[in-house]
Amino acid sequence: MIANLGFGFLFIAFLISLYAIATASYGIRTRSSVFTESARIAAEVEFPLISLSVVILLGLMLSSQFQYTYVFRVISQDMPLLLKITALWGGQSGSLLFWVWLLSGVTAASFMWGKTKQMKQLTPWVVIVTMTILAFFLFMVLFLENPFERIWITTAGQVVTSFIQPAGTYPVFPSAGIGLNPLLRNLGMVLHPPMLYLGFVTFLIPFAYALASLITGKSDSQWLQVTHGWSLAGWIFLSAGLVLGSRWSYDVLGWGGYWSWDPVEIAALMPWLTATAFLHSVILEERRDLFKRWNYVLALLTFCLVILGTFLTRSGVLSSVHAFSESSIGPVFFVLIGLILVVSLGLLLWRWNQLAGSGELGSVFSRESFFLFNNILFICIFLICLTGVLFPIISEVFTGQQVTVGAQWYKSTTGPLFGLLLILMAIVPLSVWGASTVKGLGKTLWKPAAVSLLIPLVLFLFGLRSWEGILGFWLGGSALCILGFDLLRTVGARSHALHEPFLAACFRLIVGNHRRYGGYLVHLGIVLMALGIIGMEFFQVQTQVTLNKGTPVSFKQFSLQFEGLNTLTLANSNEITEAQIVVNQSDGKFFTLSPQVENYPKLSQSVTIPAVRSTLAGDVYIVLVDWQPFSTSSATFRVYYNPLVAWLWIGAVVLILGGLFAFWPANPKAVSEQKP
Amino acid sequence: MISQPSQTDSEKTAKKKPPVNKFVIGGVLVFVAVVILAVASLRGNTQYFLTIDELLSRTSGQTQNVRISGVVIGNSIAYNAESNTLTFEVANIPGDNTTIEKMGGLAEVLHVAANDPTLKHLKISYQGSKPDLLKDEAQAIMTGSLGSDGIFHISELLLKCPSRYEDSLPAQADP
After folding, report:
1. Could you give the dihedral angle defined by the CA atoms of residues A611, A569, A84 and A199, in that order, rounded to the nearest 10 degrees?
2. CB of A542 within 8 Å of any CB in chain B?
3. With left for phi above 0 and alpha for psi between -120 and 50, is residue B120 left, alpha or beta?
4. What is the H or E stretch that residue A17 is in?
5. pLDDT for res A118
6. CA of B38: how far to CAs of A381, A384, A405, A412, A414, in Å?
7. Is the ipTM of this complex over 0.95?
8. Which one of A5, A54, A501, A507 has the largest count of C-beta atoms within 10 Å of its C-beta?
9. How far apart are CA A302 and CA B162, in angstroms?
10. Phi and psi of B89, rounded to 5°?
11. pLDDT per residue as tens digits for the range A29-88
12. Does B97 contact chain A (CB < 8 Å)?
């Protein structure tokens, strides 16, 4: 049977991971390059093997083999092909297999493209670390969350799921499956989980090299050079995954928001926070030989959080207070997290004294100390998130009562810290490495700062009275002013020194310094995203109205006119109810919005599909809330005006592009030119 | 133009001690500020997590601003568009995961509790529209306060719908 083959490939992959660990260890003991080479090849073979298993599961899904538990759960015949494919990561055991597959792919790629020749000493240890993690996950897929399980029924009529036929049962061949939860039948599901998972698994590479570097006692920064691209790639994927997730939430969940501080969201945010801190502190080690120990801590911590995040995110879909109660993989995950923590901490302490960097922190207003402050802020935000997620457990230990914290707590604690990060981001491009004084910094800072003061002035004159909003816009705006000022200044200097035309100097400077200007572009993206977030947090307007035909209702600068309601039944017996609302703008133009509710009678669930009209100034976002069954003359809507939210998504695109630009292999000549 | 001020080694060593202390003090100050911020924001933003039985049997102690978890009784769901009020009933389910796991998993626990006529139902009132996932045998996690009318008025509603194979299987089974 084909499913047995899929299981068999996974089992062989599991054995090969054990083989790779054993041969790599033996190769290290005997210093035999034959054995370490064999271990490396074994690690590369994992990817094609697990790919075969994934292809088989996909085959079962696409050919509707409902006797398999996973297929029965996530596939229904009325799902289009694209969604049937995304169902691979839409359910428990499939998503775990998908995760393992990506992990093996990233590992294989790191061995194929990695500079293994330079890193001969580290490679066998990297094999051991990556294969241990892979073996853990393969074990979970094989023995705890097997996607190839079948459905059986006992003579007493009880349903059992098992890979091997239990005694006294006979197989069941259901004619249809349940299918994905309707909320997951959305385009957002196509890209959001793969991006997030890719981000997660990519951090295995810096983690593995950090551990290998600690074990071999190589106290140079080689592991950072080898893994820098991987960390950046992981960060780009993770950022994209987070943004796509919030876009899905905005498009599908119909509450007019994009981020709800749900534990599952926070679980994915935490590794992003430490990874962002890592990307910054790495620069300090490269430039100033500072923070060597700290970089190890961040690389190890990030992967720990990845495992914690995987554990939290992949188990529950929407609500998450008990997200992990559904599955038997809990104990194994705790063993894995415990093992990673103990090994990481033990190795760090063992090598602590050898890892001292030669660099020193200069003055308080130097660029290095701003980087330090940046790291402190990111770690503080991370600690707040961790405390919030663990608060029910902590409080139960101390008071015997579970106490939870709400979204408001996260907002009021992390909000000021994010604001400080914006300030820091604004100042840093103008700071200098090494010794610097507040006077020197002030001298370069005052011009763009003065220009940026126009922003709050203009906003105030235009009637904005929310001080948080004005402060936020000013912070973001001053960051933009300073970025622009710094670029003009540097381009001017280059054009003057090399006698290049201004635009050519600008182009060559940016192209020649991928990492720096990629970073600037990421910062620009953050500022734009901040614009959208400020708009949503401080200026969102919402109301609930019952609209009657022929009676327009005014909302903000719009007038809403209800045109009618119709219901149609689809071939799959789903019912779609759609309302038409004409929105008249003050300038006489108008547009029509059609919010819908799709009812899935088979699943006794409905899905609310908001209608959105998006402009750079703000979105009109309408949700159909209620209507009378036989009357089409009135219906109730929830209407939102979400100012500036489009900038959140534009900023996210800029951020990703900036990351990709920084990722682009740099021209070594240009880099050496730039270094002081 | 900014120029990098050059530093002689003697200058460096002379400056070495005080800056490090500055950084330590600065770091500690930031950390303390964050802790104060976090603790200060706890007021009014935390909720006790209770089961419905615990909430109803509370004669003393807090019944205001608590978080409870229960199973939704499908035929009790009603929405009034005029007042934008959603009402439904929930029944008790165990609070801790180990008990739930022992009783056959969350889906099973929800199914049994929703169909148990001996369980007391708690009336819920919510200002807001009906979430898509609010349906029979869904797990509801709610934050709110118990009113003197015996109705639990909630401000936050999270839902989870684990599916049971048994619900859809027998009709489709073809042994």
Report:
1. 20
2. no
3. beta
4. helix A2-30
5. 62
6. 10, 7, 11, 8, 9
7. no
8. A54
9. 31
10. -115, 150
11. 998 889 999 999 999 999 999 999 999 999 999 999 999 989 998 898 888 999 999 999
12. yes
Minimal-distance CA residue of chain A relative to B101: A325
Could B20 and A178 be called an inter-chain contact, meaning their C-beta atoms sit closer than 8 Å?
no
Contact (Cβ atoms closer than 8 angstroms) between residue A404 and residue B67: yes
Please judge whether A183 and B132 are an interchain contact, meaning their C-beta atoms are less than 8 angstroms apart: yes
Length of chain B measured in residues: 175
B32 and B94 inside one domain: no
Considering the domain architecture, whether residues A498 and A602 belong to the same structural domain is answered as: no
Residue A468: give the domain boundaries.
382-537+653-674
Instruction: Based on the fold, state whether residues A66 and A170 are members of the same structural domain.
Output: yes
Nearest CB partner across the interface for A676, out of B4, B5, B37: B4
Contact across the interface for A172 and B23, Cβ inside 8 Å = no
Distance (Å, whole) CA A120 – CA A126: 10
- Return the CATH number at B110: 2.40.50.140
Query: Residue A676 corresponds to which tokens in the numbers above?
Result: 């002081």
Residue of A nearest to B109 (CA): A326
B24 has a chain A CB within 8 A of its CB? no
Q: Distance between CA A550 and CA A538 in Å, rounded?
A: 33
Domain count, chain A: 3
Task: Specify the pTM.
Answer: 0.89
Please, how many CA atoms are within 13 Å of residue B159, restricted to the half-sphere of its CB? 19
Residue B57 belongs to a domain: yes
Binned at pLDDT 50, 70 and 90, residue A176 comes out as: confident
In a domain, A24, yes or no: yes
Q: Are A45 and A163 within one domain?
A: yes
Return the residue of A nearest to B38 by Cα.
A413
Q: How many Cα atoms occupy the beta-carbon half-sphere of A10 within 13 Å?
A: 28
Contacts with B, A 636-675, CB within 8 Å: 636, 638
**Cβ–Cβ < 8 Å for A227, A654:** no
B42 burial via Cβ count (<10 Å: 0-12, 13-18, 19+): middle
Q: Tell me the per-residue pLDDT of A638-656, one tens digit each, with 9 for 90 and over.
A: 999 999 999 999 999 999 9
AA identity, residue A584:
N
Domain span holding position B18:
12-46
Closest CA to A472 of A537, A519, A411, A377: A537
Contacts of B168 (CB under 8 A, 6+ apart): A174, A178
Q: What are phi and psi of B92, to 5 degrees?
A: -70, 140
Please check whether residue A406 is in contact with residue B156, taking contact to mean a CB–CB distance below 8 angstroms: yes
B82, part of any domain: yes
A346: confidence class by pLDDT, cuts 50, 70, 90: very high
B46-51 and B66-80 strand pairing: parallel
- B17 plus B52 within the same structural domain: no
In b/e form, how buried is each residue of A219-240, taking b as 16+ CB within 10 angstroms? eebbbbebbbbbbbbbbbbbbb
Enumerate the residues of chain B whose CB falls inside 8 A of the CB of residue A436.
Answer: 5
Residue B124 lies in a domain: yes
User: How far apart (Å, rounded) are the C-alpha atoms in residues B175 and A240?
Assistant: 46
* Nearest CB neighbour to B79, from listed A401, A440, A626: A626
Residue numbers in A near B49 (CB within 8 A): 321, 392, 401-404
Would you state the structure tokens that stand for residue A420, as one six-digit string? Answer: 């400080």
Output the DSSP codes for A543-600. EEEEEETTB-EEETTEEEEEEEEEEEE-TTS-EEEEEEEEEE-TTS-EEEE--EEEEE
Contact A605 B67 (CB under 8 A): no
* CB interface of A with B, residues 158-217, below 8 Å: 159, 161, 170-176, 178, 181-183
Look at residue A131 and tell me whether its pLDDT is greater than 50: yes
Please give the span between the terminal C-alpha atoms of chain B, in angstroms, as a whole number: 83
Say which residue the tokens 């100050």 belong to: B29
